[in-house]
Protein: DNA polymerase III subunit delta
Amino acid sequence: MAVNYKEFLEIINKGFLPAYVFYGEERFLIDEAIKKLKSKLIAEGTEIMNYSMIEDANDKNIIDSLETLPFMSEHRFVLIKDDDVLKKINDDTVDAIIKRIEGGNTDSCIAFVFKDKIDTRKRIFKAISKHGAIVNFEHLKFDEAVNYVGFFVRIYGKVIKKPVAEYIVKSVGVDLYTLLNEIKKIVSYSDGQEVLIDDVKDVISASTAESVFKLVNAIGLRQEKVAIYILNKMILNEENPIGILAMIARQFRILIKAKYLLLKKIDKKELQQSLGIPYFSINDIIQQSKCFKEKELLNAYKLCVKCDRELKSSYDGNLALESLIRKLCN
Structure:
């Protein structure tokens, strides 16, 4: 079955399925889904023996993990975080995974995580859709992100009024990891019990979202020096390299989708709803999409994915981002 995050939570509160697929742009909620599923499946204190995370998949490590029996727990959890997993394993391994899924085996529950949209026509995804759950984590709508801002602020023991929360989302965007990073800085800065608009403006003196927009604009105009200057300014403001990359990648995903939708001659309101961005940003997105050809946008996103791997391999974050910007500008 194809479900959203809320429906996924309802499923695991009732019981377990043999397999799951998590994919989409909202990485914070994907990580939350993994934590919740892991805590439900694995008995407390037995994670070392009953949890396997595979980031470089091959036939042997997948089969070995699935065939290992649970120890002091009813279930094992096998998490595969490798976008290229289906290119790396042979048909026999795929058949073995499908057989376990169709048999309803939850001794070793398996979950796949993908950054991009999946091809649901593939055999393995058809089996998971029928016997498990495929969960799509799209970026949140504006109002949903505003609600999460209130939730994050309350976690830190403070309160925030809705207009102030809306200002944060308008300034930063709807990516939850980016929002959480900003909330941490804001609540640390705020003296009182309530987070005030002045606190927010002091901390978000230069909007991250606006900086990313200008950065992508400079890339579109092939202004390498300007793009590098904006990047360095963001780094000096202690922005997290992974957070910067996430917002750059998100901007290119929005532009790819906008480019495709504009060919259909849809109106601005429909475009705004499809992209899940505030209406006031639509004209800017339309103009920015004109700076790139479709092929350039797709290539830019692929370079972002490659840079993401480099950052997660303990690569120098600042150097990796600067290298990315130079490639995108040329």
Q: What stands out?
A: The chain is about 60% helix and 10% strand. The chain has three domains: 2-137, 142-203, 208-329. The longest strand covers residues 108-114. The two ends are 43 Å apart (CA to CA).
